[in-house]
Design goal:
The protein contains five helices and two strands. The N and C termini lie far apart (78 Å). By secondary structure, the protein is mostly helical. It has a domain of 67 residues: Orthogonal Bundle (Multidrug-efflux Transporter Regulator, Chain: A, Domain 2), CATH 1.10.1660. The chain is 50% helix and 5% strand.
């Protein structure tokens, strides 16, 4: 195995270290930002849903959500919402079901035209 050794002046090493440190911090910050916690209002806005539709999907366990206990506030991980949106998580709603959920935020399936409730 050949080892390459380069001697650099101290000021060049310092400049290089500064550049590397900035890039590492940017990546760490980006990873933290990507997987941050969202409340229901933020998650609904992020997904383009109403808060009511978001709550109904999570109550039906069709959307990944977290809470401390029954009746407590819901929280959502942005990375899980991204996975759910792309259909990658278990219990994900397919695109057709998502459209139906958007059209019928009251939780019931849309009725065909001409039928009454």
């Amino acid at each position: 195995m050949t080892v390459l050794s380069i001697e650099l002046p101290e000021n060049v090493l310092d400049a290089l270290a500064e550049i590397v440190a900035v890039r590492v911090l940017e990546r760490l910050d980006g990873a933290r930002r990507e997987d941050r916690w969202l409340d229901a209002k933020q998650a609904a806005h992020y997904l383009g849903l109403s808060v009511n539709a978001l709550h109904k999907l999570s109550a039906r366990r069709q959307l990944p959500a977290h809470q401390d206990g029954p009746g407590h506030k819901l929280y959502f991980l942005r990375s899980e919402l991204d996975s759910w949106r792309s259909g990658g998580s278990a219990g994900a709603v397919s695109t057709g079901s998502l459209s139906r959920a958007r059209l019928s935020a009251n939780g019931s399936a849309p009725r065909p035209r001409g039928t009454s409730r």
